[in-house]
């Protein structure tokens, strides 16, 4: 079957790089709007019997998700052979369980919506929680940002580095790096009064004189990250850097990072940056996604793209 790559509007910056690495141009499509703003995406070439990959992160506004669903539906009705939704950043994944009365499990709802639209497969990077894969009844290729960050850190001197998790929930993620590079691990234990607001934090472990690397999957307002950096410095850390896969960076995030004791925040390009910052470094995921798309099309292993820990 032929391969066709298409992009949603919000992820064109990344999709173009993926297409370059893959060696195919992006497919032609048009996004029309009615006078009230309602979208009508149109695929401008045949996809009958083809392997179709739609590249679109589902970050805010919700129109990004809606465009992806409409594109999938368009391809399904045009008799595409196999449809894969490539979602570098899977939005609404932070609501993955019912932790209080009368709240949605939005990650499950989005999984059902994408399946109902007609997707045969999902490809994404760093779910907020691994168990979200179980919300889907179709195959999920869950790429790991370790495949981006570990080669990057291999070229650096980590002899004085300690890896840290900014909260208890991210310990497994941080331990992957600590184990791979045979370094120590510390934990910042936080508690909140409300969402996006850290009420208090303590450090479990000794960071005296160490260069600390915080590991997280999402940096949103950067409140947790900055609070963790400040406390780690207070506890004697020599420097603090952070790696965060998805740069949501909402609210006062840029201001928080600039005014914090964090030396550098290294992110992936699963989301576009809203503004530039001397403290934020971006690593591209395009080559990894291009290889994963090729392996999917050629029925080869996706796990071969992971870094063995």
Please give a structural write-up.
The protein has 8 helices and 14 strands. By secondary structure, the chain is of the alpha/beta class. The chain has a 7-stranded mixed β-sheet, sandwiched between helices. Strands 1-4-5-6-7 form a 5-stranded parallel β-sheet, with helices on both faces. The chain has a two-stranded antiparallel sheet with strand order 2-3. The protein is globular and about 60 Å long.
The largest sheet is:
7 strands, mixed
Intertermini distance: 35 Å
Strand content: 25-35%
Percentage of residues assigned to helices: 25-40%
What is the secondary structure topology, with strand pairs?
Blueprint: E1 3-7, H1 12-22, E2 29-33, E3 39-43, E4 51-55, H2 63-77, E5 82-87, H3 106-117, E6 121-125, E7 140-143, H4 146-154, E8 161-165, H5 171-181, E9 184-194, E10 197-204, E11 211-219, H6 223-234, E12 239-247, H7 253-258, E13 264-268, E14 280-283, H8 286-297
Parallel strand pairs: 1-4, 4-5, 5-6, 6-7, 8-9, 8-11, 11-12, 12-13, 13-14
Antiparallel strand pairs: 2-3, 9-10
